[in-house]
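Hey, resending since the last one bounced:
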Amino acid sequence: MKTKKELKDEYKQMKFPTGVFQVKCTVNKKCLVDNSVDMESKWNRHKMELKFGSHRNTELQKDWNQFGEDKFAFEVLSTLKKTDEANINYTRELKNLQDTVIKELKIENTY
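The structure tokens again:
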């Protein structure tokens, strides 16, 4: 059995998918475009906030309540490869990537 320290070290070594994603309503085609260094965790946070009725985006929450969870899809739009370089500002890089993706895909119907 692994020690707590070994488990923590393993967790620190894990690579999480980094990039831009959207939460899209399949009924009205509106979407929320977001980014994260850990897209899975961020999507889980959005989903939990929506399930508990406490999402900060009231328009998205209203549609979630009206149409239901099964009418929403999580879609990865672009990924960003992380490097071991310490001086990279991933927050800024992800925001730039998100702006580029929105422009290139011509995403206009957003929450």
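The chain has a mean pLDDT of 91.

Sorry for the duplicate.
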